[in-house]
Each structure stands twice: as C-alpha cells, then as structure tokens.
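HOLO CASE FILE
Compound: magnesium ion
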Amino acid sequence: MNSSLKNTLSVESHKRLLREMLFARRFEERCYEAYVERKIGGFLHLYCGEEACAHGVIEAARPGHDYIITSYRDHIHAIKSGVDPKAVMAELFAKVTGTCKGLGGSMHIFGVDHRFMGGYALVGGPFPLAAGIAKGIKMKGGDEICICFLGDAANNQGTFHESLNMAALWELPVLYVCENNLYGIGTRIDRSTAVVDQYKRVSAYNIPSRQVDGQDIDVVYDAAVDAIEHVRSGKGPYFLELMTYRYRGHSMSDSNAYREKAEERRWGERDPVIILRDRLIEAGEMTLDDYKKLDHEILEQIEDEIIRFAEESPEPPLEMLEKYVLVENDPWVRGGAG
Ligand SMILES: Cc1ncc(C[n+]2csc(CCOP(=O)(O)OP(=O)(O)O)c2C)c(N)n1
Ligand SMILES: [Mg+2]
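Model generated. Tokens follow.
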C-alpha cells in the first residue's frame, strides 16, 4: 500500500470492501442485462468503473447517522448506505417491494431509514438539498454531516454556486464529493468547463478542497477521513474531487461513440476492483482462486436472492397510481382551466 497514506484500512476491511465493490460491479452488470431483457424500463445509469468513490467515502462516514444524497447514478450509493439491494433491484423492476414502491425507478432510489436521501434526476438538484439538510443538522445541533455526491458537469449549474456560497457563509456541515469522470453525457469536460480542475473552483467560496485518485479505494478513504473530520468538527464545508471514469455510456440510450478507445483502455488498466484485489494478493491475503470463488458466490447471490426477489414481487396495484400524485393545484383537475 502507498505508505504516504495517513488513514489506513485493516486487512479485514480490505476483504469486505473487495466483496462490496465486486458485488457493486456485478449488480450493475446484471442491471444492464435486465434492461436488455426489458425487465427494467425508463432511464438507467450505471456506476461500473467508479466503485471506489462511493465505497471509499461512505466507508469513512457513519452510514445511518450521516445523510447521503446523490444524482441519478445512485444504486451503489444507496446499497453502501445500507439500503437492501433487493429493494433497489425491485425498484428498478417497478415492483411494489422497491424502495419507492416501484414508482420511482432507477434515478429515484430512496432509503429514509438509512438516511439515504435519494437519487435525483435533475443535474445539480442535490446541491441545495444537501445545504438544506446540513442547515437542519446545524439548527438541531447534532454531529451528523451531509455528504453530497455529484458529477463534474453538475458544477456548471447555478445551484452549485448558490449552494456553495450559502454553505460556506453559514459554515454548514456538508461534504461535497465531485465524482469527476471527465464527461457530462457525451461532452468531455474540457469542451464544457473553463476550469477543468473542479477542486480549484470552490476557492471562490473559501471552501477547502482536494483532488485525489478516485480509482484507488485506499487513497479515497484516506482523503475522505480527513474531509469528514474537517466537516464534523464544525469547520464548515469541504469539497473532495475524485478522478474517475465510467466504463459504459452515460445511460442505456448512449452508444458511447465519442470516447477514444485508447482512453478507455488506459482507465480500464486502473480498475478499482482489480487494484484492491491485486493489493490483497500481493500481501498474501488472498489467491486468484479465492477471488474467482468470491466472484462466483456473488453472481449466485445476485441471481438467487436479488433477481428472484425482484422477479417474484408483485407490481404496484392500480389504485396506487393516484395515491402519490399531488393534484390539488392542478387547474385541469379542479376543472377551472380554460
Ligand atoms: C437540470 C438538468 N439539465 C440537464 C439534464 C440532462 N442531463 C442528464 S445527465 C447530464 C450530465 C451530467 O454529467 P455529470 O454531472 O458529469 O454526471 P455523470 O453523469 O458523469 O455522473 C445532463 C446534462 C438534467 N437531467 N437536468
Ligand atoms: Mg461526469
């Protein structure tokens, strides 16, 4: 392991995290298949390649105590926060046992019991919500923090600047985590954004920040421990930029034709799951056969427990269609529109 790291993980934590990250990879790949099989509809954004970001940061936090919020690429953040993967898959299958009774779908996973405050479809939507949650924490006087994950392109939304200004002004306990995968849909960051290094942008709001490798779980964890300590100790917000890469297109409707194959290969050589696996193998803590066995177990678990649960769960009943729709302000429903 990199000996310059201050906050380190035990071998047991490494083994557990390898399992969790490999599970995340296989979970997302199975979602891809289920989408092709038309078991999942609507939008679907996968997290393959970025696993060390959510796992490293949330490992350093206190899930269930701290609030976590993110964008539409949200399945793995929810699971690492403690939300049952069966309920996540059932949500994707639009089943009543899903996290939102099957009415939200992939972009709207929620887990109030685990303080997972959701995935959001609106780019930049979570910035002000996170500031609001952090304001609430501060008013109540707890030591929770709010962790807000967002993509690099989201930082060009007005909400980014408005929220970071208020978060800094009010010294709110919020950690902003930028998962910089270099692209917003098909647009590379240097074609959309004047300041490519995102951590530099927040100096405009006097928010301390850092940019680190998002592919190495040890590096992410080390940076996240310090960032969280800063926020929890009452010093106000912090901004952590994690350099990462998504392996698939932006969503299932993206043919991914805009990236150089050489770039994809380069990032593929720094796979977060393989980096951790090889670290354990080099330390003599696991063999390649152990890894293959683990992979096999995970694939079986996903099929036998998770997919089966989603398949066998019922669809939401018809009467639920109107139950969660707010109609009182709709003039058409009131009959007054002309
Ligand atoms: C307010 C708003 N504008 C535009 C979109 C369309 N849109 C969906 S994802 C996306 C790009 C976001 O990229 P980034 O923030 O880097 O996150 P990533 O998908 O790379 O994780 C855009 C423009 C949207 N969902 N919401
Ligand atoms: Mg991006």
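CASE NOTES: Residues 11-334 form a domain with the Rossmann fold fold (CATH 3.40.50.970). The first strand starts at residue 67 and ends at 69.
CLOSED: yes
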